Amino acid sequence: MVTVDAPSFFSQLRDWLEILYFASGVVVMILVGFGLWQLKLAKDQISLAKDQLETSKNIFKAQSKRAAIEAAVVECRRYSETIIPDSLALDKFCKDHGITYFEDVVFNKTEDGFSVSAKNVKKEDVEKLAEAEELINRYMNGLESYALFFLSGIADENIAFHTNGKQFIQSAEKGFKIFPITNIEKEDAEPIKALYYMWHKKLEAKRLKIQRKEIDKKLSGYSDKAIKPIVT
C-alpha cells in the first residue's frame, strides 16, 4: 500500500501565493484599464472645456463688437443732436452780437500739434463771448465726452470716423480756438486732442491714397518707350 504524504505547510503556502499572484495580475489589469478609461474621460472633459471656453470667447467677442457698434451709433446720433446744435447756437450768438472772434483767431496745424494765435482778437468780442460761457462749456464738454467713448474702446471708432470724422475735426478746431479766452486746462482737452490727431492722420492718409490712385491712373497712360537714334 502506497502512502501519500499530506501537503506540507510551505507547499500550501506556495500554492496560495501563486493563486494570489495570478489574481493580483488580473486586479492590476482591471485597475490599469479603469485608469486608462478615467484618463480618456479626463481628456474628453478637458477638450470639451476648451471648446466651451472658445465658444464663450467667440460669443463674448461677438457681443462686445455688437455693443461697440451700438454705442457708436448712439454717440453719432448724440453728436448730431447736441454738439452740432450747440455749435450752430454759438455761431448764431456771434452773429447776433457782431462777434468776429472765430474769424480773427488764427489756427495752424503743425507737425507735432497745433498753434492758436489770438493777437487779432478784439477785446470787446472776448467780453461779449463771456456771456455765452454756459453754451461754450456745454459745447466743449460734449466734444470731450464724445471723444472718450471712442478712445476707451466702448464705441466702435471706425464707424464714427466714417460717419462724422471730418465734422468732428472741424468742431475740435473751433473748440481749440476758444482755448486762449477760457480756463480750460491742458489735461482737460486731452481726449479731444487725442481723437483729433488720430482722425486728422486718417483723413490725410485717405487723401493721399486718392491722390496716389489718380497719379497711378495718369502714369498708366504714359509710355517710357524711347526713340532710337539713327546710326550713320
Main beta-sheet annotation: 2 strands, antiparallel
Number of strand elements: 2
SSE order: HHEEHHHH
Strand content: under 5%
The structural class is: mainly alpha
Measured as a percent range, the helix fraction is over 70%
Distance between the termini: 142 Å
- Counting H and I runs of at least 4 residues, what is the number of helices? 6
* Strand line-up in the sheet with most strands: 1-2
Task: Give your account of this protein's structure.
The protein has 232 residues and is mostly helical. The protein has a domain at 71-216. Helix content is 72%, strand content 3%. The chain has 6 helices and 2 strands; from the N terminus they run H-H-E-E-H-H-H-H. It has helices at 9-96, 101-104, 123-129, 133-151, 157-176, 190-219; strands at residues 106-109, 114-117. It has a two-stranded antiparallel sheet. Helix 4 crosses helix 6 (190-219) and helix 5 packs across helix 6 (190-219). It is elongated.
